[in-house]
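Q: Structure for this?
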Amino acid sequence: MVNRRSEWWDGVKQGIPIACGYFFVSFTFGILGASLGFRWWESVLISMTNLTSAGQVAGVRTIAAGGSIAELALSQLVINLRYSLMGISLSQNTDDDFTGVKRATLGFGITDEIYAVAVNRPTPVSSWFFLGLMTLPYFGWSLGTLAGALFGGILPASVTDVMTLAIYGMFIAIVLPKAKAERGVLVVVELAAAVSCALYFAPIFSKIPSGFAIIICAVLAAALGALWFPVPEIGGGGDA
Amino acid sequence: MRNFFVYAIVMMAVAYIVRAVPFTAFRRKVKNRFVRSFLYYVPYAVLTAMTVPAAWFATSSIAVCSCGLCVAMLLAYRGRGLVTVSLGACAGAFAMMLLMRFVP
């Protein structure tokens, strides 16, 4: 039996840098929402119920453009589908107590960054650790959106323009150290980048929506990586 | 904007279902080594596909993006955390923007 308090506290501590990053990134989401005509509480409500960067950005753009419900649902499904893969992946590294209702509720907290921290944990992930891990990022994401929606307009356009890079900085911070450490991840990253560029720049692929392009890249690169660099242990890498 | 709540509920439902259902339904450990490896590599592939090349077109100038992203990659390579790397990306981009504005 795990020590609940120490597990929870360990999760909270590991969530601090994610929460700071989220505050900053969701601040830019709040600005985006305001610029598209959303009221502050609408942007905050979306952040509190979605907790997903790329999905929310695509979502508010679709809503602001007057897109249909079907278009919204489909684009959200494709963009957020990676969380299904992450959920299955994470389900391989949870302790015996983390099942049923706990998974159905805390599963809401699966994001790129929270997943990355949880799946890299050397011991099986307990529900208490996961709850602690998602707590501060959740508030960081919600409060950042609130701050951005209310005060973003004060900042000059040049500042908000460069702030859109924050989210990509966060992605780089997750991927690059892992690619540096493991040859398998490095090859997967190179493949994904190459396929993504091909889909983006080649005219014959220009009809593919970006959400689908991400799925195509991910499945192709991860499948080839799994073929060439199969991982020996759960949570372990190619030749780590 | 009249249908805001309908839109919001659809977004929430999709975001919740794609996460919670697979996470809750998968009880057994995946034995197959290929599937396990595939799942291990997926997040890195997804994040890379979202960043390359989209991040280079995120601001109004490719040069500004490149500078910010180079700073971010350098910091990440040296093992800095999420916040440092994110701030570095913005700072690098901002520096380039100033440079382009004031140096003809």
